[in-house]
Amino acid sequence: MPSKPAGTLYRGREGMWSWVAHRITGVGIFFFLLVHVLDTALVRVSPEAYNEVIGTYKNPIVGLLEVGLVAAILFHAFNGIRLILVDFWAKGPRYQRQLMIGVGVIWVVLFVPFVIRHLSHVFGG
Amino acid sequence: MPSPPHHPGRMSEIAAPRSSSRSRNLKGGGRNRSGQTNFELYSWLFMRLSGLALVVLVLGHLFVNLMLGGGITALDFAFVAGKWANPLWQVWDLLMLWLAMLHGTNGLRTIINDYAEKDQTRFWLKALLITASIVVVVLGTLVIFTFDPCLDPSSTLSVCK
After folding, report:
1. Shortest CA distance to A118 belongs to which of A64, A37, A47, A50?
2. Looking at beta carbons, which residues of chain A come within 8 Å of B58?
3. What is the sign of the dihedral through the CA atoms of B61, B66, B72 and B74?
4. Which residues of chain B have a CB within 8 Å of the CB of A33?
5. Which of A19, A30, A83 is closest, CB to CB, to B108?
6. A66: containing domain
């Protein structure tokens, strides 16, 4: 533990950073969700309108943004489960460091296959 | 989610919580012993329960739409029509829409309460948030319930023949 206050950082350790990252990914996912419901609503307009707008999701730059979106969703999902375990599981706080590592491991295990498959779709593999 | 405590070196006093001023002023039942409603408790619990459901709903959605078959390249009107021909996916998407919007709206409400310091700013940001959320939830629900796969004249679905 630091003996002196360190600016506005709350200890500045992984507990604070996962809290910050949970907020940032949550806000990002929420704004994507608003857009995603609106673009899906175009199925009520016409097949052409929907297909044209969903076509932008297949653009390589947007394809890379989707990688970022999935990275954010996977972190938010498993960090959320870590929060639930810390809140409700009696041993959660004691194993908080291991839980943090677990979030990272699951994130990598799911993210890597996704990136390979998604980018091969986007870049026409 | 709780905010990290203010640093004692920066703030000499602890500000009153902003989020429960409304519930403190409410008259009537549904209060706990300290005279407040349990709204924040239920909201906290809802974030955890809906979060668990959303892990399954959203990761399932991503797996089926982005990993199986042609992934993103296969997404078009016919793909949506094929999925919503199955009541399972209609219910799945409806649940996902409602839970994700409530979860996200409540998350943003917490963030507005934490960072917007003026009463007026908080009020207008939350008014904007709730308006946008209601529009999106109602629109999305209507789309799922009124979807017409036969808008596509080349549809191969049996209902369109």
Report:
1. A64
2. 73, 77
3. negative
4. 100-101, 104, 136
5. A30
6. 14-122
Cα–Cα separations (whole angstroms), residue B66 to A57, A122, A123, B71? 11, 10, 14, 4
Query: How many domains does chain A fold into?
Result: 1
ipTM of the complex: 0.88
Q: Cβ distance A63 to B72 under 8 Å?
A: yes
Looking at the partner chain, which of B4, B55, B100 has a beta carbon nearest the beta carbon of A16? Answer: B4
pLDDT tens digit sequence for B47-72: 999 999 999 999 999 999 999 989 99
Domains by residue range for chain B, with CATH: 35-160 (1.20.1300.10)
Q: How confident is the model at residue B128 (pLDDT cuts 50, 70, 90)?
A: very high
Question: DSSP string spanning B2-58?
Answer: PPPPPPTTT-SSPPPPSTTHHHHH--SSSB-TTS-BSHHHHHHHHHHHHHHHHHHHH
